[in-house]
Amino acid sequence: MDQFLFLHLPAFSFGFCFISFVCFTFCYHNVNLAHSFSRGRAKAGESLFYFPFLSMMRDSVFNCCVSPPHTPGGAEEHHQHSSRAHALPPNDRRFLIFFDFDETLVDECSDDSMVTVAPGGVLPGWLKDTYRPGRYNEYMQRVLAYLAEQGVTPAAIRRTVEKLPPCPGIPALMRFLLSQPSRDFEVVCVSDANTVFIETWLQHLGFRPLFIRIFTNPAHFDDNGQLQLSPFHSHDCLRCPANMCKAVVVRQYLAQRIRERGRKPYQKVLYVGDGANDFCPSLILSPGDIAFPRWDFPMHKLIREMAEAKPGEFKASVVPWKSGEDVISTLKKILERP
């Protein structure tokens, strides 16, 4: 008996460790998945009864996307747009077009508008001093906590967002896209703002039905009326802020949609933006695609600098814009081609 135990003890130990690992992994997955279900972020077809080795990878960025339009509605809204995030868009669209939000759709930074609802219209110096480069999302969470402490209500925040002015020509561009046959444009928003700001503004102006997907930082009003932000994802890109790399979003979304379309590519991929964090996704565009940087904004300057330093490195065609009408002119031209 002693000899039997001596010979088989390593096997028993390995088996015990293996079973423990399986149980731990199973429990870890299902605790996380249960949390995802409670927030409406579980993937379509997922079950709590799940064998862990079938998918050891963590959730993709698409669990944070916002899909079909709905009316804003506080904490319930946060659950709704996450739970609908996996509805498949039509697969016959010819062109895929991405839009930034701040200083592309709206003519200012939506976060900056929150200063106007602070007492006296200013933030205290000690709060502004907490900002750290690359950590703007965390800074905004502190700003929103301060606003809640000062009695600023969700309604006041929504009213402020609704008043954000659109960039010149953007309403005309949105109406143009809405007027096109359904098989022409698949429209997506990729923004470092947040779900509440973007949803509120788009709904207010009637442009929400245009957008198939919105990729941005999740946000919701908690029971105390504070707007709670979460980072969109983590990544390794050194160009982008810690909470979002738009190139990762665009690359993964494009790859997923090509698979869903039966490997059928889009005729063109278009990207409309303004900021330095819009330069990163424009780098993955192909020679047949079009980048629309806002004239003389950081995205445009970075593209020009690359063109001078490394001619031919930037692959896509570049069409700078000062008004949404400039974008419309180019879209009309590509629609004329078969």
From TrEMBL:
Give one Pfam family, short name only. Answer: Put_Phosphatase
List where the protein spans the membrane: 12-31
Organism name: Triplophysa rosa
What's the protein called, per UniProt?
Phosphatase phospho1
Q: Which InterPro entries match?
A: HAD-like_sf, HAD_hydro_PyrdxlP_Pase-like, HAD_sf, Pase_PHOSPHO-typ
The yes or no answer to whether the keyword Magnesium is present is: yes
Q: Which UniProt keywords apply?
A: Hydrolase, Magnesium, Membrane, Metal-binding, Transmembrane, Transmembrane helix
Cofactor(s) this protein requires = Mg(2+)
Which PANTHER family does the UniProt entry name for this protein? PHOSPHATASE, ORPHAN 1, 2, PHOSPHOETHANOLAMINE_PHOSPHOCHOLINE PHOSPHATASE
Q: Return the similarity comment.
A: Belongs to the HAD-like hydrolase superfamily. PHOSPHO family.
